[in-house]
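Quarterly update, task 2.4: phenylalanine-bound model.
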Amino acid sequence: MSMRKILLLAFFVSLAVFVAGCVQKGTSDKIKIGVYMPLTGGTATFGISSTNAIRMATEEINAAGGINGKQVELFVQDTRSEAQEAATVVSKLVTQDQVHAVIGEVGSSRSIAAAPICQSNKIPMLTPSSTNPEVTQKGDYIFRSCFTDPVQGEAIAKFAANNLKVKRGALLIDKKNDYSVGLGKFIADAFRKLGGEIVIEQYYQEGESDFNGQLTSIKGSNPDVIFVPGYYTEVGLIAQQARKNGITAPLVGGDGWDSQRLYEIGGQALVGSFFSNHYSVDDPDPAVQKFVNDYKTKYGNVPDALAATAYDAARIMFDAIKRAGSTDGAAIRDALAKTANFPGITGIVTLNSERNAVKPIVMIRVDQGGKYGVADRVTPEGAVAAPGTTASPATSASPAAGASPAAATSPAATGASPATAASPASSPARTGASPATSPR
Ligand code: PHE
């Protein structure tokens, strides 16, 4: 063998060793993401939809080569729809599995219970859908990629006052649920400011199934709307029992209604009621339609808002880890805080200095057969309008939408939080936009 051939052979052998080393490093050196979700219990559909969507986002990024060459591995834990269990499983994720970041929960009470564990261990946590303000107040490692309840509550109250033109509201609240108590208060405050009156306030507890006592009292005060900021299992039963008690006033609630189970439980009794939500499957945006189709193909059902918000949260987390260029908790935290103009399925996400997102809200009407209609779209101040809202005012079913002072449709509103925005907004349209926060 000539010297040249020997050198060439040596070169190829070392190349092979190098490549093998890289491949092995790639498999052993993963990005570990903890996911804690209610997979069983009273809000199981929330967790199942969310986890499905996070898995889909993970498979997509892994198929595309992972994040900075590393594959993403999920560590999924069931909270059983309980706050105490949420704290237990998040401790396990952080201390035993040593995850680099955490995504979860849906329910605010559980996110509030688990957030301090992430905070004290300096592991960034991103909730896709917990809307109670207290969640992100737990510390600077805690983020949410959805809107908050003060914003959602105002949208609900405005819808009732301006679109339904009602004045006498009843409140029916799940008293041990932070989300329900908080959202109820924000709805009441905003409704009163708009000239409405809360004529009666009644309470229940998650797991209850007989609401006849509360509904009898409510009927006695003759409201023309009943605000029910609860979760789908109880809301379905409340709707049924309200109609049986001869109450015809519409029920109006928040994102906690969204579940395939809602109509299975409440049926016909829900038709003509309304709730606020994070997105609508009917959004004509091609990015939304692609997500809806991909999810349907993979899981056999239409993705609800939980799936959409969780898909966005996973992708926002991946984007932050990519920009951090590291799996260090502090580095991921800093990158997450700089998330700006991220084109999500549920809207364009910029995280503000309070680590919250400001996004459009869709008011959904429950129609015959459990179909959802878009009753209104609200763009809170500081949010980027959904494409349909700016382009064609006709997508708003009600004239009140345009009249609402909160309906800021100007693309200028994108720069809402200059302190955290990595780059200025380029366009209000989601379609075809690339995450402004990704490194080029
Ligand atoms: N926002 C609710 C909470 O904080 C959870 C939820 C989000 C439920 C989205 C349904 C859809 O408790």
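Highlight for this quarter: The CA atoms of residues 219 and 246 lie 8 Å apart.
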